[in-house]
Amino acid sequence: MGFFNKLVAGAQTPPKRRPASSPSERPTLGSGRSLRTKQTASQCLSTLEGLVNSYEPRKYEHLPAFNLAGAQWIGEAPAPQTVVEFEDGKDVLFAALWPTANGTDLGVFPLGSGDERLNNLPVIDDWRRRDPSMIINGSIPRGQMWLGPPPIPDDFVAETLRLPGYPDTTKNHGIVGRKLIELTLIKCCEYIQTQDPAAINRFLDAHSYTGGAPEPYLRAILDDLVDVNPSFVAYIQGMASRNRAFLLHHLAMEPNWLSLSG
């Protein structure tokens, strides 16, 4: 069976998800820079959006400036309200937000280890120029958060149709869901190719799709990609949103591409 045929052939039920690993078995983030601002959490994210967009133009109209991260707080302090993944034009970073009575406490976590890397974070200076109320408030120890696959909301496909104004019919839902799964599998295979090319066919066989709700498939695919190599997890937080932005861009360029109705 050819590569693209494998993407769309298989069982009706989602691939079985492995039992969730414990936090001690998941990749954890290194130390982070602690910040404090008078802005609300919502204002912080708006400032971050403008900052990220200033580094380089968005490749696609619907490509978000940041993505909700599949992170879980395992430190002793209260968990952050929100954790997002973003890029500063060259590096992947994570920002955690704790709303307070007087604004927001933040943590910015670059990848890697060692506190010395926190002394060379241009994104902090850039962010502070956009938010004069922001101050540096020390550092956050390593190992306070572990990373898992990114969250995929239950209405991911419906939202994908809503953005360009297509009705969420059974036909449209199936077409777009199938295409998103196909794009996700293609990207996963690119990652697997760098580690174990022989594993590509096994991965495709285990995640073939012929119907059913797409979101559980997408979650299972990303879960299992992390099982192939946990180091992938930091780099796939925006995979679903990038695939959606790519799909919507090409749909706008070629409206008949997917033969959607409405």
What do you see in this structure?
This protein is α+β, with helices and mostly antiparallel strands. Helix content is 38%, strand content 17%. It has a six-stranded antiparallel sheet with strand order 2-4-5-6-1-7, covered by helices on one side. It has a two-stranded antiparallel ribbon with strand order 3-8. It starts with a helix and ends in a 9-residue tail after the last helix. The relative contact order is 0.20. Residues 1-13 and 17-24 have low confidence and may be disordered.
List the helices and strands and how they pair.
Layout: H1 3-8, E1 32-37, H2 41-55, E2 66-68, E3 71-73, E4 82-87, E5 92-100, E6 103-110, H3 122-130, E7 135-140, E8 145-147, H4 156-162, H5 170-193, H6 199-206, H7 214-228, H8 239-253
Antiparallel strand pairs: 1-6, 1-7, 2-4, 3-8, 4-5, 5-6
Uncertain segments: 1-13, 17-24
Globally, the shape reads globular
Helix content bin:
25-40%
Strand content: 15-25%
Order of helices and strands: HEHEEEEEHEEHHHHH
The biggest sheet, with number of strands, parallel, antiparallel or mixed sense and barrel status, is: 6 strands, antiparallel
Rg, Cα atoms, Å: 20 Å
The number of strands is 8
Computed structural class? alpha+beta
